[in-house]
Amino acid sequence: IGDQMQFIVEKLNQEPFRKNYNLISFDSLEPLQLLQLLSDVLGEIDPKHAVDIREELPEQTAKRMLNLLGVLKYKPPGTVSDLSAFRQGLVTGSKTVIHPVLHWLLQRTSELRTRAYLARFLVKLEVPAEFLQDDTVADFNKQYEELMEAFKNLHKEHEQLKISGLSTAEIRRDISAMEEEKDQLAKRVERLKKRVETVQNHQRMLEIARQLRLEKEREESLAQQKQEQKSQLFHAEQRLQRAQVQLKEMQHVVADSKPESLMKKLEEEINFNSYLVTEKIPREMESKKTSVYFLQKVVAEPAMTQADLTALESERDEVNAQMNQLIEKRMIKYEPTDSKFSMYRQQASIISRKKEAKAEELQAAKEEMSSLERQMEQKSSQAHELEGSEVLTEDEFKQYVSKLRSKNTFYKKKRLEIAEITAEYGILQRTEELLRQRHEAIQQQLQATEEKKGISGYSYTQEELERVSAVKSEMDEVKGQTLDNMSEMVKKLNAMVAEKKASLAPVIKELRQLRQNCQELTQECDEKKMQYDSCAAGLETNRSALEQEVKGLLEECAQEESNYRYINCMKRSLEIQLQRAKEEMKAYVSPEPQERRRAVREQYTRIILEQENLGKKLREKQKVVRESHGPNMKQMKMWQDFQQLMECKRECFLKQQNQAAIGQIIQEGGKDRLVL
């Protein structure tokens, strides 16, 4: 914090501020002075903010500063991350809020000046969607966006030119070089003119050369126009192909559709849209409003600690438990077990939830279908551009795929039948071979028996007769059954035709009446729809105007409320100061010495006298210390020398003792050797 304040003071003492502050004077600034200082710094960045804050309301000052700080992309530090606390600190001129803002602004003044300049032209004005439906407003908005883009490009070019580093000296040198080249070219032109003047018909040749140059320029312009027209023709062909594809799709849709299916589709769409308008969207709007209300309530509250969160969670759990108990008690008390209302309610709630889920799924499917249709159109246009051949529509492609699938299934089925028939054919062929062998053996036995009995050929004749009679009886039976079936079928068909005619006669009459009613209802529906659209547009316009008016009144109310609170706070502080001043005057003027002693002036006077006496005593003590400083230093030096001397003597004494002990040990060792 000290380094931050030092940096702020140094920057404020320099150009262009020249405030002549020090750390003490800067720290002792009043909140109003701090706000004025912040406004001056912001005015240096953006001249529109160089205003006297005493001439505007505190709420306007805070709003103006917050808007500019938002444009400059200032992020509050961690200590004031709450936006409401930061806003309150700006209104009251809190040091903890304004000092970091000043430090951030003074660190990057030139960069922020450029950003504020660009924000005047690049902050986009948000135009409501209902206004953009007007063609004039939409054209102006488009021109505004184009001008903004042009300004961006020009600013980039300007910055690049500044970075390129072309100085005025280099430009002057280039200009002088160009002038020299111009003079040389003029001289060459004069020389060429003199040469040409000697040639015969030079004027005619010059005229022909001029015409040749003009024709070449015209040829280049015509070639450019030809290229542009080719590109326009190509784009027009693409648009024509897309329009043809859309026309074919619409014709296909119209050809496949019937009035009944169209009416049914329109009824379904109307039912779905009415459900969205009357049930789903109002419920979602209500839930959004409640969530916004709770979020605003949470934002307005002060920052919460972890302990507050745990307390709220515990309170929430308790409330949920109480709510569950009350629900159980109510179900036991008011809903007996044999009642069917609970079952019906559950079924109704389940059906409503399913209805909402299906509506959401249907809406999502419609959005997905629209996106897929757009992708299909893009792909078809790309295919037209690449190949130029006709692309199948969605319905044609579906029909083609369904035909392929049906043919594939039919092919697989027939292939299985062929395999079964082939296997059965092999079995039957083997059976036939076995039976033929057996029949031949039996025939041989029969012929041998007939030859023995003398009646050869009898069995063959008998078989032929039986076979002919069987065929004749089968043919007679089939003829009789066919005639009976045909007569019965004719009778049934005649009866069914008569019955259908009789039953369809009133239906046809009713259908004609219903068709006429359908046409009338369709016309009435179109008229009502037009009335609804016009009424809805008028109501929407009135609603937007009322919303703007309510918004302005709410802002005015909030501003007046903040002014009222600020004036009340100032009034209370002034009343307290006035009361303290009255009490001070009363105590100071009072003849009683006891009351005078309570006065602040007397208290400060006593404190000043005590401090002056203390200062005198300290100065006398300092004088004594200064006078005795020299002798005391000498005495201290002597004591230090004496201490060193005693230390040296002690070390010498210890060395003598060590040497005496070593000599004694040596003598004792010599005596021991002599004894040995």
UniProtKB/TrEMBL annotation:
Pfam families: IFT81_CH (PF18383). The keyword Coiled coil applies. One of its GO terms (molecular function) is tubulin binding. GO terms for cellular component: ciliary basal body; intraciliary transport particle B. One of its GO terms (biological process) is cilium assembly. Residues 137-253, 309-389, 483-563 form a coiled coil. Belongs to the IFT81 family. Component of the intraflagellar transport (IFT) complex B: together with IFT74, forms a tubulin-binding module that specifically mediates transport of tubulin within the cilium. Binds tubulin via its CH (calponin-homology)-like region. Required for ciliogenesis. Required for proper regulation of SHH signaling. Plays an important role during spermatogenesis by modulating the assembly and elongation of the sperm flagella. This is Intraflagellar transport protein 81 homolog. It comes from Phainopepla nitens. The gene is Ift81.
